[in-house]
Amino acid sequence: NTGEIGKALSDDHDVNIQGNWTAINDDLYIPEGRIVKVNGNVNLAGYDVYGEGVLWVTGNVTVNANNIRALTHVGGDLILAGNSSIEALVQVDGNVKETGDTTTHTLTVEDDLHVNKDIKVGTLTVNGHAEAETCNTPTVNVNSKNTLIVYGDMVATTALNLTNGRLEVGGSLNAPTALTMVKSALVMDNTALTVGTLGVDVDSTIEA
Asked: What is the pLDDT of residues 29-54, one digit of tens each?
């Protein structure tokens, strides 16, 4: 359980778990210089993981109304079962998605999120830095000049809001309902831009 892992870490031992692991009864603190490696899937079950150490997971990580506040590597998918936030550097080799392929939850990126494949959640709010191959999220809010980067195509069917933010898109951008920009920058590698209502203030720029 989480307490036994914490005791091993406090005794200056790394922890290697063979198989799936679910957090029980408490948050997981990983001290500096220590690694918790899970050779399977992880369900944080509403508890936070935090500290200066590393959580290394070969499979999927499920988060449910909790925060990732430690350096984390996800070998599979990061799965949202509730509104959650990224408050450390998190690398996801697969997709960021919700359980059951729904789009009802909010993922807030306060620090740094790198996704090798797609981001598909209800709402993505970027207050730090995020990048992904593609993004198919109904509502996207970019509130950081540290940039949301989408290397391929991006679709935001409900709303795309940039406030003091920067968005870079390598493929096509489709915001069929609304694109709103306030003191922000949109940079595109091509001119494949489709929008419904366009609201751009005088302090914003669109480069294509």
From this structure: 999 999 999 999 999 999 999 999 99
Pull the structure tokens for residue 68: 């990732």
Say which amino acid occupies 150.
V
Q: How many helices (H) and strands (E) does the chain have?
A: 1, 27
Facing residues of 71 across strands?
54
Decide: helix, strand or coil at residue 5. helix
Total count of residues recorded for the chain? 208
Helix (H) or strand (E) holding 182: strand 173-182
pLDDT tens for residues 131-164?
A: 999 999 999 999 999 999 999 999 999 999 999 9
* The model's pTM: 0.96
Helix (H, G, I), strand (E, B) or coil at 59: coil
Q: What residues pair up with 72 in beta bridges, in sequence order?
A: 55, 90
Helix (H, G, I), strand (E, B) or coil at 111: coil
Cα-based torsion angle of the residue sequence 118, 124, 129, 131 in order, rounded to the nearest 10 degrees: 10
Query: Which residues make beta-bridge pairs with 168?
Result: 149, 187
Q: Would you say 181 and 195 are in contact if contact means Cβ atoms under 8 Å apart?
A: no
Q: Cα–Cα distance between 79 and 81 in angstroms, integer?
A: 6
Rounded CA separation 140/155 (Å): 9
Is the CB of residue 50 less than 8 Å from the CB of residue 29? yes
Dist. CA 50–CA 58, nearest whole Å: 19
Angle at alpha carbon of residue 108, lines to 159 and 167, rounded to 5°: 55
